[in-house]
Amino acid sequence: MIEMTLQTAERVARAVQARAEALGIGITVSVVDESGRLVLTMKGDRTGFLTPETSRAKAVAAAAFRCATRDLVEARKTNGAFWESVPAVSAGAALPSSGAVPLLREGRVIGAVGCGGGTPDQDHDCAVAGAQAL
User: What are the DSSP calls for 12-67, one per residue?
Assistant: First the structure.
């Protein structure tokens, strides 16, 4: 069985932080395992006070739905009522907002990375950089 480890989460988070630095932004990154349990949160300098919660909730959504949260934002356009209800029914644990992607190893989802602190496109870009670190 392939598991998310702290070492893997740290590698992902450091890649996210490096991408954020290249973009000139502060970012908070959260990494969760395949079940959405928190493995690591790294709050970047100059980030807002809610970014640890939103980055984690984005990561949980990416792990739960096994896709980039950017895709969930697109899905909202055709089924808005469902996607608008996700944060409420998950007690805020899942946020279908751009900035998170699943983490894959050998074709299997082992977790997800979520980012907060930039624009939706910057958050997504940083999350992708983290996933590519695997």
Answer: HHHHHHHHHHHHT---EEEEEETTS-EEEEEPPTT--TTHHHHHHHHHHHHHHHTS
